[in-house]
Amino acid sequence: MTFNRYRNSTYKSINMRLLLRLMMALLLVSMTACSTKLAYNNLDWIASWYVDDYVTLTSAQEKQLDSSIESLLLWHRKTELQNYVVQIKYIKIDLKNGIKHSTIKNYINALKQFWDVILLKAEPDVMRFANSLSDKQITELLAEIEQQNLKKINDFNNSSEKERLKKRFDRIEEQITEFTGPLDRQQKKRLTQLNASLLSAFEQRIQFRRDWAKSIAAAYQLRQQKHHKENDRIQFEQALRPALINTNSLRSQEYLAILEHNQAKWVEFFPQLISSLNVKQLSNVQSKLDDTIADIQGLY
């Protein structure tokens, strides 16, 4: 697959999910159609293109964004990627010895720590870029967010619960079988039970997106009232931080409870799935993890 800088649904599916590749390996789920190495090597323009879907950037802003991403990726290659390889090697060992619920929780905690490190490193550049956006660009951004909300609501309302369950089942099955190969009847039955036990968070997610947009709007309204002094800049960044860095603070307790419930169901499901894998399936998983390790090591 070659990469050219233009909009294409195949490329958009890659999005920023490359950095989630670790989680896909941790939880035997993969959402990327192209190799880790290929996608990672093109994250600079992928990120710019993704941002451009929401707001029209000036040439200076595009250069600023490209420079920030290039710097972040250079740091990430040098300091973080080897940690991912170590973690995946531990997973390979656990697959042989048996994975418990506590082990899956450890993987999730490790992923959160990896993301916290990235966010901490990226925060200064993120804030500088956010401060470069004009009021007109923010109006465009907020309008695009709401337009997407309305499209999501329309798509949701035009589908039945049965159709949504089927779509989610197919998506999960595809993600898992990319690692394991075809599932047997009993495994599909377990997957059906998992799918039925997961709670929908659609309404809560839409409300979160709207609260998120309101938080962004409030921060930029605060900036309008200030005079760009140092203390004013700090207040603006503090107001913007929940929307950019600490998004959980904008999620309702109901939304967080649903997310926690669904995570618990996944934690319960994965040890059962892994213990049910036959020799060929387990070999497929190990090979996929080996490929992921090789891809990551090729990025050093």
Question: How would the blueprint of this fold be written?
Answer:
Layout: H1 9-14, H2 21-26, H3 36-40, H4 43-52, H5 59-79, H6 81-97, H7 101-132, H8 135-157, H9 161-180, H10 185-197, H11 202-225, H12 230-244, H13 253-276, H14 279-297
Helix pairs in contact: 4-5, 5-7, 6-14, 7-12, 7-13, 8-11, 9-10, 10-13, 11-12
Structure description:
With 300 residues, this protein is mainly alpha-helical. The chain has one domain. The protein is 78% helix and 0% strand. The relative contact order is 0.12.
Give the topology string: H per helix, E per strand: HHHHHHHHHHHHHH
Shape: globular
Provide the gyration radius in Å: 21 Å
Question: Quick one: how many beta strands?
Answer: 0
Short description:
This protein has 300 residues and is mostly helical. The protein has 14 helices and no strands.
List keywords for this structure.
single chain, 300 residues, mainly alpha, 14 helices, 78% helix, globular, disordered N terminus
